[in-house]
Amino acid sequence: MHVDLTFQPYWKIAEFEYRALFYYIKNNSKGCRCIKS
């Protein structure tokens, strides 16, 4: 249970970071596309 408790925050942070990175890439791609266009 102790290990699970320690892993919970790590997974949550990883998921949040991954989501943020995905959004950043999406926005960056959109911005680049807009600039290119």
TrEMBL record:
This is Uncharacterized protein. It comes from the Eukaryota. It comes from Rhizophora mucronata.
